[in-house]
Design brief:
- With 268 residues, the protein is α/β, with parallel strands linked by helices.
- It contains seven helices and nine strands.
- One zinc ion binds next to loops.
């Protein structure tokens, strides 16, 4: 298995050196690790700059690729946090560099990152989740140059509801629209195990609704991968055996990762 979503210390909210992440993944006998450091152009909180210097990033990854070449596949990806106004600039970054993998995500809706909690004010749970999903749909309609879409369930992580699970039946129309758009563009749907790790806020963990994955499959979706969204070594590969069982149960026979932006399918 390959962890397709890992943040090194090139992400400002990550402290893990690339080498440590590779060592951890190799010790866990993962077959690969894809670094997807944050690149959020015009992130609306000026104290936080989620960007990195791509030249230095590639230089460091190349060295480590070589060091681990007999043990683990190391892939150089990027997680681009998209907003409608930053589509063109993101396009430039993606075209300019030779990433293995481009992971698209939404971290900001209506000028707010759901992590900052203001996002939930004056919204019901249904509205808070639905609005996030609407924004994903809008973004993937506007932007094409990515491989997989990250954490459709990002919005559940900081939510303070007693039951913060996001269920297919509550958002079926918008999830169907997202899946149809991803499938028609040949883009994949990430399972982000980071959305299901303990947030130490005393709230019950959200449950992953397998009906979401089953519906993606039913509509013709084939490209799924596992990403821990790990920012430190304890997160790498988190709950991968549990979630790969879920992927099988939903009817998938393969998992995907990307090398030089090309999908590689591995039987599960
Ligand atoms: Zn993200
Ligand atoms: Zn991430």
């Amino acid at each position: 298995m390959i962890d397709c979503h890992v943040h090194s210390n090139f992400s400002p909210d990550g402290k893990m050196p690339i080498d440590t992440a590779c060592q951890t993944a190799a010790d866990m006998e993962l077959t690969g690790i894809a670094f997807t450091d944050h690149f959020d152009i015009d992130y609306p909180y000026p104290d936080l700059v989620f960007m990195f210097e791509p030249d230095k990033y590639f230089e460091d990854i190349e060295k480590i690729k070589n060091k681990y070449k007999d043990r683990i596949k190391v892939l150089a990806g990027i997680e681009i946090g998209l907003m409608p106004d930053t589509i063109d600039e993101n396009q430039k970054i993606v075209s300019q560099y030779n990433f293995d993998y481009v992971l698209a995500s939404v971290h900001v809706v209506d000028g707010m990152d759901p992590y900052m909690l203001d996002y939930y004010n004056n919204k019901t749970k249904h509205r808070a989740y639905e609005r996030y999903l609407e924004e994903i749909h809008r973004i993937i309609t506007l932007f094409d140059d990515f491989d997989m879409f990250a954490h459709f369930d990002y919005v559940i992580r900081p939510a303070s509801y007693d039951d913060r699970s996001l269920r297919y039946r509550d958002h079926s129309d918008i999830l169907d629209s997202i899946f149809k758009e991803l499938i028609s563009k040949g883009k994949g749907f990430e399972i982000n195990t980071g959305s299901y790790r303990d947030r130490t806020d005393g709230k019950k963990l959200a449950e992953y609704d397998i009906n979401i994955l089953k519906r993606y499959k039913e509509l013709g979706g084939e490209l799924v991968c596992l990403g821990s969204d790990g920012h430190n070594p304890e997160h790498i590969g988190l709950k991968f055996s549990q979630f790969s069982e879920l992927i099988k149960e939903a009817g998938f026979k393969y998992m995907v990762h990307f090398e030089q932006r090309k999908p590689v399918l591995i039987k599960i």
